[in-house]
Specification:
With 293 residues, this protein is mainly beta. The chain has two domains: 104 residues, SH3 type barrels; 184 residues, Beta Barrel (Porin), CATH 2.40.160.20. It has two helices and 17 strands. The strands form two sheets. Strands 8-9-10-11-12-14-15-17 form an eight-stranded antiparallel beta barrel. Strands 3-2-6-5-4-1-7 form a seven-stranded antiparallel sheet. Strand 9 and strand 10 form a beta hairpin. The protein is rod-shaped and about 95 Å long. The two termini are 56 Å apart.
Length: 293
């Protein structure tokens, strides 16, 4: 009797895990190394191909051996197997969707680190101050994004921007221009496109510069003068942000935006210029990395 039970159990276990033949019903179905949609793709199978799959799904995926000989996992919604009833196929498809949703839900926040170029408007300066060679500069950004739902993220963004130049105003006057600012902003990122590896969003941010420093040094054949202006400025920014995942936790980031920022400065007797309001806004471009937390 005991031997009969053991034999029955072995036969039953083998029947559950035995392979069956299935037909691929989608174009180029992906085969994954794990039974989840965000795992690595180890191969593809063309539509109408027949493959060997297991009888029992795991998270909506069936273990399979594809024509190339690779063993992996294929979504139950991509195949039609004689041993899988329509109800089971529906459950497999739902399980696959739930797996994708749960994988997306697990990405609660992201850390973005990037750097690149910027252009400065540099409008509003008195005619006595030449900033024609200071239209470009460099900067870096650190940003945290916290997920609200499938399409929206809260964002906190800190930048460091700098620009400097030296120019000859006339045969007797030389000026050096140096600009540094540290905008800290908060906003929201709308992500209408979010695929397995690619993500594209549009953001709006607002905040203030914790420190804006503008230094102008002027030297002539007879004298020299240096004036440093400091201010705390309101900043706004709109940007387009895209990323491509190269692993489950790391992506390549591209960020293009336009920043608005201006500051008012008093008159300077040493430079012999009147009070002015400078516009430091301009285009910002960044490349960097995205870390999924």
């Amino acid at each position: 009797m005991k031997k009969a039970i053991i034999v029955f159990g072995l036969v039953f276990g083998l029947s559950v895990n035995a392979a069956q033949t299935a037909k691929v019903v989608v174009e180029n179905a992906n085969v994954y190394d794990k039974p989840q949609a965000d795992s690595s793709v180890v191969g593809t199978v063309p539509k109408d191909a027949s493959i060997s799959v297991s009888n029992v799904p795991t998270n909506g995926f069936f273990k399979s051996r594809i024509p190339s000989g690779v063993i992996g996992w294929i979504s139950g919604s991509d195949i039609l197997a004689a041993g899988v009833t329509p109800g089971a196929k529906t459950a497999a498809a739902v399980a696959t969707k739930n797996t994708k949703d749960s994988n997306f839900t697990s990405e609660q926040s992201r850390l973005l680190i990037s750097g690149g170029l910027q252009t400065l408007n540099n409008k509003g300066f008195p005619t006595g101050i030449s900033v024609t060679n200071s239209k470009s500069g460099y900067g870096g950004t650190i940003e945290m994004q916290f997920k609200i739902n499938e399409n929206f993220y809260w964002g906190g963004r800190a930048e460091y921007l700098l620009s400097s130049s030296s120019q000859t105003v006339s045969s007797t006057i030389t000026q050096t221009f140096s600009f540094h600012t540290l905008p800290v902003m908060a906003g929201i990122m709308y992500v209408p496109i979010h695929k397995q590896k690619f993500r594209l969003g549009v953001g709006l941010y607002a905040g203030f510069s914790m420190m804006t420093s503008l230094t102008i040094a002027q030297s002539t054949t007879l004298s020299s003068a240096t004036v440093t202006y400091t201010s705390t400025d309101i900043c706004e920014m709109g940007n387009l942000q895209g990323s491509y995942s190269i692993s489950s936790s790391l992506g390549i980031l591209a960020d293009v935006g336009y920043r608005m920022q201006s500051a008012s400065y008093p008159a300077s007797t040493s430079l012999n210029v009147e009070a002015f309001k400078a516009d430091f806004g301009g285009l910002v471009t960044r490349l960097g990395v995205e870390i999924k937390l």
